[in-house]
């Protein structure tokens, strides 16, 4: 096996350890809102403003066609105006209707004193659309050109005729209206105008001898919108009932040709023929007999939440964490790349041969050189290989996949996304939490800025119809949480047929027992291209062996990238531990937070109840805190995060829902009020600080009773991460209390490891780790 493994060592291992000069004053001062009792009162008021209520409408609510205004004009005016009642899809139907026989080309300029530019009913002095009657004033008669009477009262000539220099629209001669033209029947084209059906001059399309019963027929080369054939309008189409799409157009409900969605024999509301409200078949949402449930399927309060769209403001979009004083330490980190035919890693973005547009967006993001995980992953993805990348928190894994994937799409000339009932994204990215998905989507919008590529996000806790409309407006890159992804897939709103890249962010979390079954279904979906055609890339700061073995089953000959201390804690985060019993935690927390002042701090707890309790406790003690956890409404979760990011609240009390991926500027401290039992979750939690070379600090309360059994894992992790092991922990594992620990044991046996299992010949059991909080539904 050894020959197959190419190993690239980037440079000497970093010996950087936690600690260094710690600056207590380096916090970002939060703007304090007016002090108030009760948790988040001010925040709650403002967050209510951001909640928009959507209508639970039918298919494609966001793309409703504007109804044309009826017109009595027999002319199929060459430049179609609204008001033409034909079934033809007038492409730019904006102008008002005309019911007159005259198609007065410049009526507004000719009659300066007219009250308005509205269409007229024909003849002088008729009541216009404005409702005001024209007097004629000094205007000349349209027939004889003299003032004092209207054309219909003209002593010269009978009923019609073109006034002044105006010529009849049929024969082009002066002296009569087209409707009185002696040359033809009732209609016809003026001068060079031709019939819209047969293309010949001398008659209107409704009188065309070639046409069927009169009004029908497609003019010129126009084809019927239903059957695609020429010679009749869609409303007279012999092939179909009430409606239908033109040519290849299909019903919006069942996808079949020959009828419109409202006549669909499958009934129901959506693509799956089911009501959008209750998901039962046989009726549309507006006829839904089932009372609206105030609770979601998992018993949480239901809200109709439409989140804000990602900003279009360039300045805002490119804002991010500025890399810190230790950024250059990345250069000392060991980069290991293993697998068959390892592609050569890049040393600069320019060297990767990226498209100028991407290089510009990278530059605008403030990136000067790639981080180690970017050096390797960009090369691997550009070489179109499957990939597992395991790199320390805050080291730029998001850009490590977004940039090369976008480059490939642009290189291959992928068309910009277009509207369609069934979307076929080229890239699907799945994340474990809604907030992380939002962040990834924002990054995707940033790197694809000014390009044809379109990123769309779908996630739980938001109005389905809104996100469906967004998705159906076109999508190249779909960012999703697992539940909503599955839901939209089942509803037939998108499929995987065009997928070139499937990316799992926080992949070890995505493959564990919480999400694993959903991911398995997704990868084995009938529309998913097979291994080797689709590429799978997985990223995380931790990658236990048993999860890696499972991941391997979805990939073909994957490359394994690791940087620094694999699965270890970020060396730029100083980690402190205080022994503290459950009883004493509250007082200790107050003491710690008072010391930290206005510093941006995330306080992690182990349950939603505790999150509410601690946040309320802090607010009651005049500390500006808010909370995020799975029982809060999605609008509240996002508002809490916004308040924390903007400095309205400087303390965020969170469950593990905020442990992974979130990249928030200025977070200098993480407090583990409760330590997680899952060691990987600890790595991610403390990784919310100390990002891209900035310095951070974590403070953890170690409760002997609850955390004692896990002490070995912590000692192993801290040792491997070159971090200080507190003396009390050393004592606990020294054997005095019989807690000897095998640091090199595979993670499935309680050890801590993240390495290429193929290389070490491990045969880990497939028992995946349990989610940290079984009660926490994240999606
Ligand atoms: N090459 C770079 N130069 C400067 N900043 C960078 C670079 N790459 C990424 N960043 C910034 O580093 C921050 C962290 O990036 P990102 O969130 O992708 O890290 P991550 O490795 O995915 O972290 P986590 O493991 O916590 O999910 C972001 O603010 C990002 O804009």
SSE layout and pairings?
Elements: H1 41-49, H2 107-110, H3 314-317, E1 335-338, H4 356-364, H5 372-382, E2 387-390, H6 397-411, E3 427-431, H7 434-447, E4 455-458, H8 464-472, E5 477-481, H9 482-490, E6 501-505, H10 507-511, H11 516-523, E7 535-540, H12 545-552, E8 559-563, E9 573-579, H13 585-596, E10 600-604, H14 608-620, E11 625-628, H15 634-646, E12 651-654, E13 667-672, H16 679-686, E14 696-702, H17 704-707, H18 711-720, H19 727-733, H20 757-760
Parallel strand pairs: 2-7, 2-8, 3-5, 3-6, 4-5, 6-7, 9-14, 10-12, 10-13, 11-12, 13-14
Antiparallel strand pairs: 1-8
The structure holds adenosine-5'-triphosphate.
Q: Could you say what the CATH architecture of the largest domain is?
A: 3-Layer(aba) Sandwich
Helix content: 10-25%
Hetero groups bound?
Answer: adenosine-5'-triphosphate
Radius of gyration: 34 Å
Q: Structural class, from secondary structure content?
A: alpha/beta
GO molecular function, one term: hydrolase activity
EC number: 3.6.4.13
Protein name: RNA helicase
Domain Helicase C-terminal: 572-733
């Amino acid at each position: 096996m050894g020959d197959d493994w190419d190993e690239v060592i980037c440079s000497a291992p970093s010996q950087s350890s936690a600690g260094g000069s710690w600056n207590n004053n380096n916090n970002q001062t939060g703007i304090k809102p007016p002090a108030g009792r009760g948790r988040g009162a001010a925040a709650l008021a403002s967050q209510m403003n951001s909640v928009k209520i959507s209508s639970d409408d039918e298919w494609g609510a966001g793309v409703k066609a504007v109804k044309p205004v009826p017109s009595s004009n027999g002319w199929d005016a060459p430049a179609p105006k609204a008001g033409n009642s034909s079934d033809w899809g007038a492409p730019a139907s904006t102008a008002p209707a005309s019911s007159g026989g005259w198609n007065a080309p410049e009526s507004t300029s000719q009659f300066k004193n007219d009250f308005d530019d509205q269409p007229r009913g024909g003849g002088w002095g008729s009541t216009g659309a404005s409702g005001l009657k024209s007097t004629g004033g000094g205007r000349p008669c349209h027939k004889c050109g003299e003032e004092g009477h209207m054309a219909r009262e003209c002593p010269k000539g009978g009923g019609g005729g073109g006034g002044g220099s105006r010529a009849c629209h049929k024969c082009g001669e002066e002296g009569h209206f087209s409707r009185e033209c002696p040359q033809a029947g009732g209609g016809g084209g003026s001068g060079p105008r031709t019939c819209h059906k047969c293309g010949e001059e001398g008659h209107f399309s409704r009188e065309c001898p070639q046409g069927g019963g009169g009004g029908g027929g497609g003019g010129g080369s126009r084809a019927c919108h239903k059957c695609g054939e020429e010679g009749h309008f869609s409303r007279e189409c012999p092939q179909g009932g009430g409606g239908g799409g033109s040519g290849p157009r299909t019903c919006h409900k069942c996808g079949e040709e020959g009828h419109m969605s409202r006549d669909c024999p499958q009934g129901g509301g959506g693509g799956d023929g089911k009501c959008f409200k209750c998901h039962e078949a046989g009726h549309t949402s507006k006829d839904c007999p089932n009372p609206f449930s105030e609770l979601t399927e998992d018993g949480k309060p239901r809200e109709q939440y439409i989140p804000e769209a990602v900003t279009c403001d360039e300045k805002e979009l490119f804002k991010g964490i500025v890399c810190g004083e230790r950024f250059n330490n990345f250069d000392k980190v060991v980069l290991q790349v293993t697998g068959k035919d390892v592609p050569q890693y890049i040393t600069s973005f320019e060297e990767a041969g990226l498209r100028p547009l991407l290089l510009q967006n990278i530059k605008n993001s403030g990136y000067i050189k790639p981080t180690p995980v970017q050096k390797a992953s960009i090369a691997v993805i550009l070489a179109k290989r499957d990939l597992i990348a395991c790199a320390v928190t805050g080291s730029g894994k998001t850009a490590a996949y977004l940039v090369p994937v976008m480059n490939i799409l642009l290189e291959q000339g992928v068309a910009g996304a277009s509207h369609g009932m069934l979307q076929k994204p080229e890239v699907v990215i799945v994340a474990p939490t809604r907030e992380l998905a939002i962040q990834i989507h924002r990054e995707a919008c940033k790197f694809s800025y000014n390009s044809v590529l379109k990123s769309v996000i779908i996630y739980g806790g938001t109005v389905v119809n809104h996100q469906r409309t967004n998705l159906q407006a076109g999508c190249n890159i779909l960012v999703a949480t697992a539940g909503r992804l599955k839901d939209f897939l089942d509803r037939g709103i998108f499929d995987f047929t065009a997928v070139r890249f499937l990316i799992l962010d926080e992949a070890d979390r995505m493959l564990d027992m919480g999400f694993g079954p959903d991911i398995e279904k997704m990868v084995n979906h009938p529309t998913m291209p097979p291994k080797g055609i689709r590429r799978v890339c997985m990223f995380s700061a931790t990658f236990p062996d048993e999860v890696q073995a499972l991941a391997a089953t979805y990939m073909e000959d994957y490359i394994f990238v690791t940087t620094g201390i694999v699965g270890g804690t970020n060396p730029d985060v100083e980690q402190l531990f205080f022994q503290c019993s459950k009883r004493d935690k509250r007082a200790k927390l107050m003491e710690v937070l008072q010391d930290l002042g206005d510093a941006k701090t995330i306080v992690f707890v182990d349950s939603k109840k505790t999150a509410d309790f601690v946040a309320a406790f802090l607010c009651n003690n005049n500390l500006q805190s808010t909370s995020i956890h799975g029982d809060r409404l999605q609008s509240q979760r996002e508002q809490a995060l916004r308040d924390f990011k903007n400095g309205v609240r400087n303390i965020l009390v969170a469950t593990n829902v905020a442990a992974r991926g979130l990249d928030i500027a200025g977070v200098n401290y993480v407090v583990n009020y409760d330590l997680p039992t899952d060691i990987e979750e600890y790595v991610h939690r403390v990784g919310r600080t100390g990002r891209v070379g900035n310095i951070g600090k974590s403070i953890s309360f170690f409760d002997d009773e609850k955390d004692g059994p896990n002490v070995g894992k912590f000692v192993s992790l801290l040792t491997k991460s070159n971090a200080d092991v507190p003396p009390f922990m050393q004592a606990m594992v020294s054997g005095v209390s019989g807690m000897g620990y095998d640091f090199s044991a595979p993670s499935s046996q309680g050890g801590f490891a993240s390495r290429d299992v193929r290389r070490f010949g491990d045969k880990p059991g497939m028992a995946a780790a349990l989610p940290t909080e079984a009660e926490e539904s994240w999606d």
